[in-house]
UniProtKB/TrEMBL annotation:
<dbReference type="InterPro" id="IPR013221">
    <property type="entry name" value="Mur_ligase_cen"/>
</dbReference>
<protein>
    <submittedName>
        <fullName>Mur ligase family protein</fullName>
    </submittedName>
</protein>
<dbReference type="InterPro" id="IPR036565">
    <property type="entry name" value="Mur-like_cat_sf"/>
</dbReference>
<feature type="region of interest" description="Disordered">
    <location>
        <begin position="187"/>
        <end position="211"/>
    </location>
</feature>
<feature type="compositionally biased region" description="Basic residues">
    <location>
        <begin position="1"/>
        <end position="20"/>
    </location>
</feature>
<feature type="compositionally biased region" description="Low complexity">
    <location>
        <begin position="202"/>
        <end position="211"/>
    </location>
</feature>
<keyword id="KW-0436">Ligase</keyword>
<feature type="domain" description="Mur ligase central">
    <location>
        <begin position="22"/>
        <end position="165"/>
    </location>
</feature>
<feature type="region of interest" description="Disordered">
    <location>
        <begin position="1"/>
        <end position="23"/>
    </location>
</feature>
<dbReference type="InterPro" id="IPR050061">
    <property type="entry name" value="MurCDEF_pg_biosynth"/>
</dbReference>
<dbReference type="Pfam" id="PF08245">
    <property type="entry name" value="Mur_ligase_M"/>
</dbReference>
<dbReference type="GO" id="GO:0016874">
    <property type="term" value="F:ligase activity"/>
</dbReference>
Length: 211
């Protein structure tokens, strides 16, 4: 990362510094924290939502409050940006139907998953002992075979989220696919080392462009 930080947590500024990693380019990827609603303090250009469920109820009380927080999160994303959500998760998929406030233009919303109605559709999923592969099709156009060096359907979904986010950022599809082949994949709570914008291994992953 070069220059000044482009994403800040105003309540916990030390946390951003402790979890950052040095890199290059104009995309800053961060894990958002919905547990205490601090993700609502962010102003990302793009975001990935992998799942929305009845979690952190010590702070929220019930699922309805969790959903309301994610509804508000949609409004924090740059209207010129994007939101990528998992079509296979009912909680995340619900965000497709959340109306924008009157007079507000909302960021473009795109979906990924094995569901037939996903914008980025995964088919031919194969999970081996040390790798996972699938065919990615975006808006009816086949992008090719994606292979990641970690096992698990959930890892395939994570990589698809990163792939779709990268495409929304304008990165070359071929480079994104090749990046996963060269990468060791990702684990929960971490980001990919592949030449892609990041791996959506957590509930929300915002991407912010410097201004």
């Amino acid at each position: 990362m070069r220059g000044r930080p482009v994403l800040r947590d105003r309540r916990r500024p030390q946390r951003v510094r402790q979890q950052r990693a040095r890199g290059e380019g104009d995309v800053f990827v961060a894990e958002a924290d919905e547990s205490d609603r601090s993700f609502l303090l962010l102003a990302p250009f793009g975001a990935v939502v992998t799942n929305v469920e009845a979690d952190h109820l010590d702070n929220y009380g019930d699922l309805a409050a969790v959903e309301a927080a994610f509804d508000r999160f949609l409004e924090t994303v740059d209207p010129q940006g994007f939101v990528v959500v998992c079509a296979d998760d009912p909680g995340a998929a619900r965000l497709r139907d959340v109306p924008a406030p009157a007079g507000m233009h909302r960021a473009r919303l795109r979906t990924y998953g094995t569901s037939a109605d996903a914008d980025l559709h995964l088919t031919g999923l194969e999970v081996g002992p040390d790798a996972t592969s699938y065919t990615a099709t975006l808006d009816g156009k086949e992008l090719g075979r994606v292979r990641i060096q970690v096992p698990g359907e959930h890892m395939a979904l994570n990589s698809a989220a990163a792939l779709l986010a990268g495409i929304e950022l304008g990165l070359p599809v071929a480079d994104l696919v090749e990046g996963w082949v060269a990468s060791a994949g990702c684990t929960d709570g971490s980001s990919s080392r592949a030449p892609s914008p990041g791996c959506a291994c957590t509930t929300t992953t915002p991407t912010t462009r410097p201004r």
